[in-house]
Amino acid sequence: MPRAGLNQAAVVAAGAALADEVGLAGLTMGSLAERVGVRTPSLYKHVGGQDDLNRRIAALALNQAADAVGSAVQGYAGRDALAAAARAFRAFVLEHPGRYAATIGMEPSGPDDPLATAGRRLHDVFTAVLRGYEIAESDVDHALRMLRSLCHGFATLQAGNAFQWSADIDESFEWLIAFADQGLRAVRR
């Protein structure tokens, strides 16, 4: 009999929180079972195993990132939208490094996979940001990859404590936003 209050959503949320604390590599079914107060076999009533858990955490993370970035850009366009999106994305990764790590390299099984749906939501938010730059349709994918690389790279390096020199990290991130803005303005139609 499943523990009262324990369902798939609760298991995935607990797994995501634990991944944020110990890193995705440190998340195991055993450590999650201990966290939620059940024996490991009980988790299989809610998730199909470690891979299924990681996929569900990735979908959760992408949806949460889409919500955070989407809320941040409301009412903004151009550089202001870019800055709001970049800051919100960075903040999400810094606050949730384990669950964000689950999104890297995770392939959807098809177009209806919750992972694909969540990924499209985040993709659509950043695509909307690019509309303010009047990027040629043929260049949108390139611009999205550039933004993903810049924001992902900076946030994951910061989350890994890789910026240990004296320059202020926030100033460096604002410099990155200005750099991206100038590049995007340079490639307008």
UniProtKB/TrEMBL annotation:
Any Pfam family the entry gives: TetR_C_33
Keywords: DNA-binding, Transcription, Transcription regulation
Top-level taxon of the source organism: Bacteria
DNA-binding span(s): 28-47
Database matches in InterPro entries: Homeodomain-like_sf, HTH-type_TetR-like_transc_reg, HTH_TetR, MT1864/Rv1816-like_C, Tet_transcr_reg_TetR-rel_C_sf
Domain HTH tetR-type: 5-65
Keyword Transcription in annotation: yes
Descriptive protein name: TetR/AcrR family transcriptional regulator
